[in-house]
Amino acid sequence: MLDEVSLDAVIAKGAERSFGFLERLVAAPSTVGHEVEALEVFADELTGLGCSVRWQELSPDLAADPRAGVPPQTQQPRRQVVASIGPERGRSLLLNGHIDVVPAGSPTAWTAPPFV
């Protein structure tokens, strides 16, 4: 088990790479229906961490499934990144999230560009 000092060292060692990844991710516009650039950043990072990555197209019929939640407000084809590491059998851990953001609106409303 990691003690506090070694955990701090691990965090410090990975900080530069982590901040670089976050900088690339924020710089990739990812409004609903236009997430591919940000997903590519995410997929590249996962590949660099040793994961195998595949792309999965989301079915246009997904919105008709009542278990699918709120249907996306876009007609654009949607894709997701699926990554795995380790053996195909055994215990699994699923991490799920979303990468899209709301539109930035007027550039004059920002004190700095929203995707920088």
The outline comes out as flat
Tally of strands:
2
How helix-rich are the residues, as a percent range?
A: 25-40%
Number of helices: 2
- Percent of residues in β-strands: 5-15%
Radius of gyration, taken over Cα atoms and rounded to an integer in Å: 18 Å
Any low-confidence stretches, pLDDT <50, length ≥5? none
Class by SSE composition: alpha+beta
| Average pLDDT over all residues | 85
Biggest β-sheet: count, sense, barrel? 2 strands, antiparallel
Q: Give the termini separation.
A: 38 Å
Q: Helix-strand pattern, N to C?
A: HHEE
Give me the side-by-side strand order of the main sheet.
1-2
- Multimerization state: single chain
Chart the SSEs and their pairings.
Layout: H1 4-27, H2 36-48, E1 52-57, E2 79-84
Antiparallel strand pairs: 1-2
Helix pairs in contact: 1-2
Task: Write up this protein.
Helices cover 32% and strands 10% of the residues. The protein is built from two helices and two strands; from the N terminus they run H-H-E-E. The protein has a two-stranded antiparallel ribbon. It is flat, with a radius of gyration of 18 Å. The model has no long low-confidence stretch (mean pLDDT 85). The protein is of the alpha+beta class and 116 residues long. It starts with a helix and ends in a 32-residue tail after the last strand. Helix 1 (4-27) runs antiparallel to helix 2 (36-48).
